[in-house]
Amino acid sequence: MSHSEISTFNRRQWLQWSAALTAGTAAPWLGAQNAPPVPAKDFLVDGKHVTIVVGGPAGGATDGVARVLAQAFSAQLDREVIVENKPGAGGTIGSKFVSVAKNDGHTLLLGHIGTNVLSPLMQTPQPYDPRKGFTPIGQIGNTASVLLVPAGGPTSLQAALEQWKRKGTFSYASTGLGSGAHLLGHLLADAVQVKGLHVPYRGSPFALQDLAGGRVDAMFVTAGAIGSFIEAKKLVPLAVASAARSSYYPQLPTLREVGLQQVSNEGWFGLFASANVAQPIASAWHAHLHTALQQPQVVKQLQGLVVDIASSHSQKAYAQFIDQEINHWTRVVAQLGDALKAA
Question: What is the CATH number of the domain that holds 176?
Fold first, then answer.
C-alpha cells in the first residue's frame, strides 16, 4: 500500500473525516470524535516501521514509558515499533519533529505536560502551537513530581526551606526552559520569596547526576526516574507537588500541606500523533493504546515506573483534558509574565 492509499475507506470518506478534523476553532481534535476506528494495519505501510518519539534522552521516565508501549504495539501489529530519542529545548525538539511529520500515523509522540502544554507556552518564539500541532490519542497515566535534594544536605522539607530562606537563594535543575521542573522550581522560589537560579539540562539523567554531585540544590523530578538514586542514598526526597500524597511515596508530604498551594503540578503521560491526522487513524491508535493498557504485563511495567494507569481511556475526554490544561497554564504563565520566561 502506498503512502497516499487508505485501504478500507474510500476517498470521499477520507476527505469528509479530514475536513471534520480541522473544522474546529479552538482545538481541532475536539471534533470528529465519532468516526469509526479501523485497524492500524489497514493504514500502516508494509515494510515501514512505527516511531514513538521521546523529547528526552534514553534512561529518563518518559523514555521508559515509551519503550513499554513500543513493545506492546509491536506485539499487536506484528511489526517493528522503535523509540527515537530527540532531547533538548525542554522536549520541544522531539515534539516539533512529530508536529510536522507526515500525518500518516507512522510517527507518534510520547508527550507530557512539559512537551504539550508548558514548553510551547513559555518559549519565545513559540516552537509550535500546542492546540493545532498535535492530534491527542489518549492518556497513558499519571505520575507525581518529587522535590529532591542531594544527600548530605537538608533531610526534611522544613529544613530545606529554612536553609534557602537564610541564604536568600537556591539553584534548581530542570530538563529545559518550559519543562515542568522549570515551572515548579520557579513557583517554589516565588512562594518561599527567595531568588531561584534556574539550571537547565538536556534531560533528567544529566540533571540528576549533577544534583547527586551537589552542583545544584534541588530539582523536581518525575517519580519514575528517581528510584535508583534514592536506593543508593545519593538523593533525598522531600515532598511531592501533586494535590494528594503519592501511593508510591506515602511518607512524603505534599507542598500544599505546608501552605505552598501554588506549587502544584499533576504529572501525566499521553500519546499524540502529528497534526491533522485523520480521525480513523487516531481512533485506531486509541484502540491499540486502550488494548495495551489492559494487559497485566504493561500495567506492571508502568507501575514499576511509578505510573498509575489513567482511569479514563476516552479519546474525546483526553482531548478535552489537554484543552483545559492549555487554558489553565496559559493563564498561569501570563500571570507570572516575563519573570518566568527569563528564569
Answer: 3.40.190.10
| CA 128 – CA 79 distance, rounded (Å) | 30
161: alpha, beta or left? (left if phi > 0; alpha if psi -120 to 50): alpha
HSE at residue 101, side-chain half, CA atoms within 13 A, is 23
Q: Which of 240, 258, 276 is at the close of a domain?
A: 258
What pLDDT digit, counting tens, does each position of 210-244 carry? 999 999 999 999 988 898 999 999 999 999 999 89
For residue 181, what is the enclosing H or E element?
helix 180-192
> Backbone phi, then psi, for 261, in 5-degree steps?
-60, -30
Look at the block and give the residue holding cell 502506498: 2
pTM of the model: 0.83
Say if residues 218 and 160 touch (Cβ distance below 8 Å): yes
Helix, strand, or coil (residue 118)? helix
| Same domain as 338, residue 305 | yes
Length of the chain: 343
Could you give the CA distance from residue 133 to residue 117 in angstroms, rounded to a whole number? 11
Got the DSSP string for 74-90? HHHHTS-EEEEE---GG
Q: For residue range 51-102, what is the model confidence (pLDDT) as tens digits?
A: 999 999 998 899 999 999 999 999 999 999 999 999 988 899 999 999 999 9
DSSP 202: S
